[in-house]
Structure formats: C-alpha cells, structure tokens
Amino acid sequence: MAVLDLASILGLILCAVLVVYGIVFGNPIDYLGNFYDFASILITFGGALCCVLIMAPDLKTFFKYLKSFTLILKVQKINEEETIRQIIALSNIARKEGLLALEEAANSIDDDFLKKGVLLIVDGTDPELVRSILETELNCIEDRHAEITGFWDSLAAMGPAWGMIGTLIGLINMLRQMQNPETIGPQMSVALVTTFYGSMLANWICIPISTKLKSKNASEIMVKELMVEGLLSIQAGENPRVIEEKLKSFLSPARKAAFSQEEGGENIG
Amino acid sequence: MAVLDLASILGLILCAVLVVYGIVFGNPIDYLGNFYDFASILITFGGALCCVLIMAPDLKTFFKYLKSFTLILKVQKINEEETIRQIIALSNIARKEGLLALEEAANSIDDDFLKKGVLLIVDGTDPELVRSILETELNCIEDRHAEITGFWDSLAAMGPAWGMIGTLIGLINMLRQMQNPETIGPQMSVALVTTFYGSMLANWICIPISTKLKSKNASEIMVKELMVEGLLSIQAGENPRVIEEKLKSFLSPARKAAFSQEEGGENIG
Amino acid sequence: MAVLDLASILGLILCAVLVVYGIVFGNPIDYLGNFYDFASILITFGGALCCVLIMAPDLKTFFKYLKSFTLILKVQKINEEETIRQIIALSNIARKEGLLALEEAANSIDDDFLKKGVLLIVDGTDPELVRSILETELNCIEDRHAEITGFWDSLAAMGPAWGMIGTLIGLINMLRQMQNPETIGPQMSVALVTTFYGSMLANWICIPISTKLKSKNASEIMVKELMVEGLLSIQAGENPRVIEEKLKSFLSPARKAAFSQEEGGENIG
Amino acid sequence: MAVLDLASILGLILCAVLVVYGIVFGNPIDYLGNFYDFASILITFGGALCCVLIMAPDLKTFFKYLKSFTLILKVQKINEEETIRQIIALSNIARKEGLLALEEAANSIDDDFLKKGVLLIVDGTDPELVRSILETELNCIEDRHAEITGFWDSLAAMGPAWGMIGTLIGLINMLRQMQNPETIGPQMSVALVTTFYGSMLANWICIPISTKLKSKNASEIMVKELMVEGLLSIQAGENPRVIEEKLKSFLSPARKAAFSQEEGGENIG
Amino acid sequence: MAVLDLASILGLILCAVLVVYGIVFGNPIDYLGNFYDFASILITFGGALCCVLIMAPDLKTFFKYLKSFTLILKVQKINEEETIRQIIALSNIARKEGLLALEEAANSIDDDFLKKGVLLIVDGTDPELVRSILETELNCIEDRHAEITGFWDSLAAMGPAWGMIGTLIGLINMLRQMQNPETIGPQMSVALVTTFYGSMLANWICIPISTKLKSKNASEIMVKELMVEGLLSIQAGENPRVIEEKLKSFLSPARKAAFSQEEGGENIG
C-alpha cells in the first residue's frame, strides 16, 4: 500500500483551514455564506475546467489528468541508495558468472525500466543501441509527465482568468442598474467572489500540484539516469568499485557519507 | 471523414453556456443585452484582428491561419501502435525480399512522410542523407505548426490589450463629461464590456486553441520521430524484434503492455 | 520597386480607423479632442523614445532602428521555389562543366549570400570552411535582425511604462488639489490619456512590427539555410535529383506538390 | 567559524528599518499598530507556507529548505586564487614524483570535491571516466541548489498571491455589510494589510535570498569547473605553467594581474 | 580619454526634462513640490537598494556594481574593421617570418585578449588548448558582465515593488484614520508618489542601463569571437585572403562593402 504524503496532505488541509479562519475571524461580522455563490462557482471552476477540456486530447485523457491529483497524496517510492546497491549486486553477478547470468537476477527486479535494461544486456544488444533505447524511453516518460504538469499549469492560468471574467460580468451588470445605492456593496462583494475562487483554484490547488509533480518527475528521472549509467557500466564490464564510485556521484554529500558507512558496515558484517 | 473531437467541441460550447448563465443568473436583474455593444465589438475584436493582420505575411496566409481553428474540431488520426506494426511489416519484407521489395509496399502507405522515407531507402540513398532529409522535413513541419500557434498566441495577447484600450477610451470619454451622475454607472458598464470581450477572446478561444494545436503537433512529431528511427533501422538491416523493442520505447507502459499482448495474440492466431 | 505589403498597411490603417470610431461613436457625447493632450504626448511618446535612445549604441543607429519601420510595408522578395531551381541549375552546370564553370554563372545571381557561396566553391575552399564562413554570416545576419526587433520590443515595453508614469503624474497632481469636485472627472480623464497613448504605441505599432520583422527574419534565414545545404551538396558533387529531393524538404506539402508538378511540366515543355 | 555576510545582514535590517520608518513617519498620525493584524498574518504567511509545504518532498526537507535562510548570513569561503595555487602545487608534485605521490597530498585538501578528484587520478581511473564522474557530481550539486532556490522562488510567488487572497476575503466581507460608512476605511485598511505582508515576504525576504543563493551557487560551480579543468590537466601531465595559464582564464583581469604579480613575488622570495 | 556616449546622455537628460515638464505643465495648478516627499524617497529608493544589497556578494562588489552606471556614458571603443586589419597583418607576418615573429608584433597590441592569444600561439600551444583557454576566458567575461546586468535587472524589479510597498503603507495609514475627508486626496497623492518613484527608477534608469550594457557586451563578445577565429586561422597557417574572407562574415553588408573598398584603396596606395 502506498504511504501517504504527509507534507502534501497537511499543506492542502491547513490552507483550507486558514482561508476559513480568514473568512470567519478576519472581521467579527463575517460568515462563510458570503463566500458561497452557485453562479460564481459555475463560471469560475466551470469555465476553467471547460477550457482545459478544450485543450485535452480526448475526454478519457482529461479525466486521467484530473485523477493525477491523487499522485501528490502518495509518498514516492524512490530510493537511490537501494538502486545503487541493486546495480552493484548485478555487476558482481555479471563479473563472476557472466552477462547471461543476469537473466535470472532480472526476475527479482521490481522496476520495469531497470528490468528492461538488464534484459537488453542479456540479449547481447549493442551498447550504443541499449543507451539509445533507454534514453528514448526516458524522453517519452518525461514527455508524458510534462503533459500532466502542463494540464495543471493550464488550469492554474485559467482559474484567475475565469475568476476575472466572472467579476467583469458581475461589475457590468451591477453598473448598468445602480438605482439602489445600498445594493452596490453586496453586488460588488458577489462579483469579487469569482476572483477569490479563481485565485484559490490556482494557488491552493493547481500550482502546488504542478510544482510537486515536477519535483517528483525530477527525482524519478534522476534515478532512471543513474540506472542507465549503471547498466552501461555493467555491460562494459567495469569494476564494481568503480561503478559504486560513479553512481555515488548522484547522492548528496550527507547521503554519500551514510551510504559509504553502511556499505563499510556490510563489508565488516 | 474526419471524426469530431468531442473534448474540444464540448469545452467550447460549455464555456459559452456558462458565460451566458453567469450573465443571466449571476444577478436576477441582469440580461444578455448588457453585454452587447457594437462599438465595443469593433474595437476589441477588430483591433485584435487588425494587429495580427499586421503581423501576417500576407492576406491569404492570414485567412489560412484563421481557418486553422477547424483543426481542433477534428480528432487527430495518429496511431502509434499501427505505425509500429507497419514499420515491423516493412522490416520483415526488407529482410526477406531485400530493400528493393519495399517499393511495392510503399504504394499502400498512406502517410506521405513514411512513404517518402521508404522510397529514399529503395533509391539506395546514403543513411546519413536519409536522416538529414527526414529531419529537415521534420523541422520544417514544426516551423509551420509554430507559425500557426504563434498566430493564436498573438491573438490571445492582443485580445485583452485591445479590450483595455476600449475600456480606456470609454473611461476617458465618461470622465470628461460627468454632468449627470446617474449615467456614470451605465457608461462604466459599457466601458468594461470591451475588457470582458478581450478576456473571452483570449481565454475561451485563443489560448485553448493554441494549447491544443501545440499538443497535436507534439503527437505528430513524436510519431514522425518514431518513423525516422524505424526507417533507419530497416535500412541498417536490423532484426525486426530489435526494431519492435526500440519503437515500443515510444509507448506509455499501459500501451506497451497492450501492444505486446496483442502482438502475442496475433502470433498465436 | 518593392511591392507594398497589403496585410501590414491594411492592418495599420484599420486599427487607427477602429480607434477613432471607438472614440467618436463609443458614446454619443464624445469627441476626438478628448484624446489630444500635448503634455501627455510628450511624456508618453517622448519618455518611451528617450529610454530606447539611452539603450541605442549611438544616435545614427537609433534613427536606423526607427527607419526599420518601413521594412514592414514592403513585401519580402523571398521565393523558395525559385532558389531551389537556381541551385539545381547550378548543380547541373557544376556536374557537366566542372566547379570552375560556376564562376560565370555566379555573375547572374542577385542574392549576395548565394553568390558569395558559389565564389567560395569556385575558389576551391575547403567544404568545412565554406560551411563555417556561411554559418558565421548567417549568425551575424540573425544578430543584426535581433538588434532591430529588440529595439521595437524595448519600445513596446517602454510605451505602457511611460503611459503609467504620465497617469501617475496626473493623479498625484489631481489628488493634491481637489478643492473643486467638478474638475476631478476631466482631470482623471486627462491622466488616463497617457495610459491610452502608451497602450496604443505598444499594441498598434511596436508589437506588430516586432512580430512581423521576426517572421520575415525566419523566412530569410530559412532560405539562406536552404542555400547552404544546396551549396555544400553542389560542392560534394551530389546528383541534381538528390539535391532537389533534399531541398524540397524545406517546402510545405502543398508547395512541394506544386513544385514537382511544375518541374514535370517544364521537363515536358 | 563562518564569517558573517555584512551585505546580506545590513540589507535585511535596513529594509526593516525603512519600512518601520515609512509606517511611522510617512504620515504624522500613523502608528505601527495599523500594520499588525493576527488574522492577516495567518492567512498570508500561513497560506504561502502551507502551499510550499504541499510542494515539498516531505516535512524534513521542508524544514531543511527553511533553514537554508541562514546560508545567506555567512560569507562564502571561496577563493579562486588559492584553488589555482593548490592545483599548480599538485601538478608540480605529480610531475616530479608521479601521480601516486598525490595520494599523500590529497590528505591535506579540505575541499571534498577536489580531494575526490585527486584520489580518482591516483587510482589510475580513465580520464574520460574522471571527467564523467566529476561532471555528474557537479550536475547533482547544481540540482540540489536549484531545489533550494526553487523553494524560495515558490514562496516569493505565493506571498503576494496569498496577500491578494487575504485582501479579497477582507473586501468581500466588507462590501457585504456596509451599513456603517465610517467603518469602510478601517476595514479596507485591514484588508490591504495582507497585500502588504505578501509583498514584504516576497521582496524583503524571498527574492533577495533566492538571488543571493543563485549567485553563491554560480561562484561555487565556477570554482568546481576550474578544479575539473585543473585535475584533467594534471592527469594529462600538462606543464604547470600551461595549467596556470589555463586556470587564470577563470579570473577577472584585475584579479589575474594581482595573481600574476603575487606569483612573481613568490618566485623571487 | 573616453568619448562621451551622446545617445545615453541625451536620453537620460531628456527623460528627466520630460518628466519635469509633465509634472509642471500637465496641469496648470501643479508644482514640482508635489513630487518631493522624503519618507517616500527613503522607502522606495532605500528599500530597492537594500534588497539588491542583500543580493550582492559583499559591500565592495555592491559599490562596484553601482559604479557600472558610468559605463553607459562612454562610447565603446570597438572597431571590428580595425581588428580584422590587425589580424590580417599578423597573419602576413606569421606567413612570411614564422609564428615566432609574432612575439615582437604582440607588443604593439592594445587588446589584452588578442595579445594573450598571440602569445599562446608563439609559445607553440596546442590549437585545441588555445581555443579552450580563449573560450574559457570569453565565458568568464560574459559571466562577469551578466552579474552586472543582473544587478540592474534586480534593481529594475525592486523599484516598482518597493514603490508599491510604499503606496500600500500610505493607503493603510490613510484608510485607518479618515476623520477628515478633505485630507484623503493629498494623502493618496503622497501614497502614489512612491509608485511614481519606483516606476522612474526602473524605466528611466535601470532598464535602459541594463539593456545598453547587454548590447555593449554583445558587441564586445562578437569582436572577441572574431579574434578567436582569426587567431586559430593564423595558427593553422591559413592564407591571409581566406582569413579576410572569413572575418568579413562578421560585418554587415554595408560595412563589408566599405571595408573591401578601403582595402582595395590601400592595396593601390
């Protein structure tokens, strides 16, 4: 089961709490009802969603994009150290028992990308071709991720835009019929609610999701680049110690030190 | 006949419905007439279109750009899996009957780009030259697409700009003659209508079209890059299984799995 | 004589007509005089021009930049098909009579860039050096064009900035002396005129010019890249049919078809 | 002990002094209390922090990012000249006593990156591999730094966004209940305080920190690139004078002259 | 002595004249005093300067950046034609008397970069190393220039930001104490003065300086790239006529024609 991502969930909920607090306590005479207006919800959220619907390749993809929201709630299962250890283990097998012995080892690999790479090596594929196939795969993964973050970026731009359109509609209507000066305030208040909705949609939901997904993508691509380097080194028959040195370059100084220590411990044990 | 693109059409229509809803029901005393003003339409849409007309290479190209609107209404006929199968079939022919046998096969190819590539191979063109010719073609396709999306991006920028110019004109006129305080509201209302028009032009029409066309371009270029890789592999006489492995890197994991299964099924059948 | 560029001229004039229309008919009691204010003209246009004057390398270059305005009024004399035909003709001469025979042919070439390339080939310059010289020339042409479009981009940014500065000056003065409430409207009206001027300067003049010049630059560079490819193919002694195939990659499908047909027709004729 | 960074500390404090001055003396009847509002603090700072919390990989990293604030208070201990001297000394050792003699010298090197490079050379690692390992390390350092500056950039964008959301909440509440015209001013005043907070968060704290960290990163990467060049030159057995000439290219003219003079002085002494 | 840069000085002064004109004559009852407010000056200019102080590496560099203002007042002493002539002369010497004869010629070269390049050639440095050393130097020059323009860009962004902060402070204070409606106008007027200051700082000073320095940097880098090309051609022993042809690619058509004519004249003379 996927572990929940505390940072994202906490941030999402606290934001909502703060806004409700601001609405209720910012001014003693306020109440949440001021911020509920059905027509405003329709024009802002509806308008923004319709526009990203226009941009979507098809309806199915549109809902797939929307569902990507859940991705930020789960902790990413990426462990650079574990991957490095796995690659070093593979390089030891290859050195001792030959490249063909990797076929059996490949069965216990969870990561599809690493598995595919190992099988390409076992098949005796040309190193240049291995790199080309894995890099094409990497580029296509990045393209697919960029499509999803592009969806949230578009929604983040459309939210405030439709919020402003809603406010313009409210203002134009209000200004046309100003017979009763007492209703001007409440009418402007309702007109501004769409701007509020649009701003919340962008800043509370879309921008954080997009940024988080971009950061998750960067981590994933980094581990996959580490795999490509490791696989090509295994195929070239490089020394496991050199491979370890090479792959440790991907770690931060603190994690590098921890990794080396642990490795040392394992060597002793 | 081209299949209609439900996502684009639905989004476009729903947006308009939502805006009309916002105009009519946002405030019980409103009516659509508040949002119709001939001078405002002229200054906003006219101004924005005139400015992109200045930017256009010539009148004919300007209308061609405007007509590209219809592109987003049709579903793109791109099928990566079909293309991969076609290339594998071609590679089987080339392996069994030689590169010259591809000439006949080329006749049944619909895609002009793939056909041109196959004919270049049949002509015995140098692989480096084949890649160079196909990549020049790819770059020129991208340049032409970028011109069209650039047109919609310019219009998306000009819409709000001319909306603001229209509002400025209205405000300057209104402020100069404020004898009657009762007309201030309606006059400001009319002044704001141009801002509303400009914002709708950008957010309802131009930005979604531009984003959709960019995404369609990305899909098309991706399939064409897949073709280039496949064609060069055929010319190099690579093994059809290796070519399949290589081209499958362009697919997402889900489609990759579906493709492999289907292939397996075909093999059995 | 240069042919006038209808799209640019029409767009420029129509824009002005629309603005005058908006000023005069947007509100029955308006008149153009509201939009003429000498101090506003000085501060907006003067301020913006002075700032791009600060940026200019020297006074002479500043006026050269301003004069580049006339470039958008003339239709660009670029004809890819004609250039391709010219290069194929040159390659036929080179094939039949040798590279030295190109010297005579060079005399009838109008385009300086193509001429220089042909003469470099005649001189027996090393192919690598030919490419390097022509690409340096291409880069320097792009740099010079980028300077000019940069000038219009700077002016497009300075227009609204000085318009806002003018409006701020007007507002600050007005707010300090508000004894007579009846003058507030007209004074604000005058203050807003500078924002109107700045917005017109950017959206009516500078942005369209800059975009048009960028598009003209792209066409010119594309034809020159086509020339470089063609020249290097001639020097490499490639087959005229292969050269044609290569250069046709620069054309759009429609123009490619038209070109092939025409060529066929010529062959018959 | 780290030396304090006078420029950063002075700037940070002076900014606060100026704002307090502006608040207190900008208008004789003002007082700091106008600018303290608990709900406003919560919504602006809380909202902005919650949103960057959503973006953070996990809680621990979030606090690590926040703590990076202290980095700008310390002067960076980077000394290009010292590094160049160190590398020349190493190249002299390598020339006279062989590459293996560098192992002992490596012990006295403080910088981990330089030390790792020297040890790779001592191990007889292939030059291409040395460059690849060091450049991977360099890229990963840059990626980690970019994550931190990205955090401050996100906070700089979220500050004004949540300031505006707070102001919208205040305005919507105020406009709904405008029975008492006398309270409109103070209520709008409170509503604007969040915009003030957001603007201060971005312009006083986040943007300067982000810019400073980017500049520190650039200096660090530059010295590390200098080390890579130097290490590869040592491994290639280049002449120490040539190495000095090469590495001096990284210095500004003034520092280059000072360095040469000093070196000359040392040679004499 | 450096020649004064008329374009920059004229532009800077005219801008100030125009603003004073706008302040004094924009409205008959205005006077310059409306635009002087000590607290506003402190908060806008002080705040912006403090923030770029936070970003500066140290106090000394901060003042060095500020002093770079004077750079735009001096005409740049760059003469591509003169440099080309100098390089052709050097190539003639190298051809006739050998590379070593360049040592004496190097003494009469003013430009440090060209001199260093010639001396590297005289020392018999490997061509690849000469290119690498000169390009490192070129990159470091660009980095140093980018730091300075980055300083002015940061100040250009901080000016309007602190102008807005000052205006917010003024508005918040004013709105809190609105007992006397007659003081609202003048108080808002003072509040807006900071926005005016910030906008002037950015648009009158910082953006023009930054743009001018970027254009000066581009010219300088272009001449230095011309030098690198020339030096490597000299070292490769290329024909002076070919070198001239190569370097003339850096000139615009008009200057190329003028240069060739002059050269012809010299040959005759």
Description:
5 copies of one chain form a homopentamer. With 269 residues, chain A is an all-alpha fold. Chain A has a domain at 43-79 and 129-268. Chain A contains 10 helices and no strands. Chain A has helices at residues 6-25, 38-55, 59-67, 80-97, 102-106, 112-122, 127-176, 184-235, 240-248, 253-268. In chain A, helix 4 (80-97) packs parallel to helix 8 (184-235). The longest helix of chain A is centred in the C-terminal third of the chain and has 52 residues, at 184-235. The first copy, chain A, is elongated, with a radius of gyration of 27 Å. The model of chain A is unreliable at 265-269 (pLDDT under 50). Chains in contact: A-B, A-D, B-C, C-E, D-E.
What are the SSEs and their pairings?
The structure is a homopentamer of 269-residue chains.
Chain A: H1 6-25, H2 38-55, H3 59-67, H4 80-97, H5 102-106, H6 112-122, H7 127-176, H8 184-235, H9 240-248, H10 253-268
